C-alpha cells in the first residue's frame, strides 16, 4: 500500500517537473521570437558598426530654432526645444561630420545632435541641453561610431543595441532554455531508472 502511494507521488512529481521543463522551454522560445522581431532588426539595420575617436570642433545651441519630435507639425508646436548641433573631426577619415546621440536621433530629427524626451518643463529641457553642450566642450575627445561602408557620413555617440546588449538580451532565454532541457532530461533519466528497477 505504501509502495503504491510512493509510486503515485513519484509519478505526480515527475509530471509536474516535466510540465515545468516544457513550460520553461516554451517561454524561452517565445522570448527568442520576441527578441528576433524587435531588437535584432534594429541591430542589423544599424550601419554605424566601427568604433573610432571623435574630436569636438564646435557645439552650438540654436535658441530660436525649434526641432520637431516627429513629422507631425502639431507636435513641433507643442514640444519645441533648442537645437544642439555638435560637429566633430572623425579620426578614421579626418572629415568634419555631425554627431548624433543614437541612430534614433537621426531618424527623429536630422538637424539636431540631441533630441530630448517629451517633457512639459521647457526650462528643464533647456538646462539639460546646455549641460550636454558644456560636457562636449569639456571632454573634447571621446569614442564614437561611424559607417565604414560610407553610406552614412555622420557619426553617433552610442548605439541603441550594441553587441554586448544583444548578447545580454539572449542570455536570459538561453539560461531558461538550458534549465528547461536539463529538467526534462533529469525526469527522463529518473523514469528510465524507475522502469529499470521495477523490471529487475
Automatic annotation (TrEMBL):
Database matches in InterPro entries:
K_chnl_Ca-activ_BK_bsu
Please report the organism this UniProt entry assigns to the protein. Ptilonorhynchus violaceus (Satin bowerbird)
- How does this chain sit within the bilayer? Multi-pass membrane protein
The organism's superkingdom is given as: Eukaryota
Q: Which UniProt keywords are given for this protein, alphabetically ordered?
A: Glycoprotein, Ion channel, Ion transport, Membrane, Transmembrane, Transmembrane helix, Transport
Q: What is its main location?
A: membrane
Q: Name one cellular component (GO) term.
A: voltage-gated potassium channel complex
Protein's name in the database? KCMB1 protein
Q: Which residues cross the membrane?
A: 20-43, 166-187
The record's GO molecular-function terms, alphabetically, read: calcium-activated potassium channel activity; potassium channel regulator activity
Question: What gene codes for this chain?
Answer: Kcnmb1
The protein's location, in the record's own words, is: Membrane
Any one GO biological process: detection of calcium ion
Amino acid at each position: 500500500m505504501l509502495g503504491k502511494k510512493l509510486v503515485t507521488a513519484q509519478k505526480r512529481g515527475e509530471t509536474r517537473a516535466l510540465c515545468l521543463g516544457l513550460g520553461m522551454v516554451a517561454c524561452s522560445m517565445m522570448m527568442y521570437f520576441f527578441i528576433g522581431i524587435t531588437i535584432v532588426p534594429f541591430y542589423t539595420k544599424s550601419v554605424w558598426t566601427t568604433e573610432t575617436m571623435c574630436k569636438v570642433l564646435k557645439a552650438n545651441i540654436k535658441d530660436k530654432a525649434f526641432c520637431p519630435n516627429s513629422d507631425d507639425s502639431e507636435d513641433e508646436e507643442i514640444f519645441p526645444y533648442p537645437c544642439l548641433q555638435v560637429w566633430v573631426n572623425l579620426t578614421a577619415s579626418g572629415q568634419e561630420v555631425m554627431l548624433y546621440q543614437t541612430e534614433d536621433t537621426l531618424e527623429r530629427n536630422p538637424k539636431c545632435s540631441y533630441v530630448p524626451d517629451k517633457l512639459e518643463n521647457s526650462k528643464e529641457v533647456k538646462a539639460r541641453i546646455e549641460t550636454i553642450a558644456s560636457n562636449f566642450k569639456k571632454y573634447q575627445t571621446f569614442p564614437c561610431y561611424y559607417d565604414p561602408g560610407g553610406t552614412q557620413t555622420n557619426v553617433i555617440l552610442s548605439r541603441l543595441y550594441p553587441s554586448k546588449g544583444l548578447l545580454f538580451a539572449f542570455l536570459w532565454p538561453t539560461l531558461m532554455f538550458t534549465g528547461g532541457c536539463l529538467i526534462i532530461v533529469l525526469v527522463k533519466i529518473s523514469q528510465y531508472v524507475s522502469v529499470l528497477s521495477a523490471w529487475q
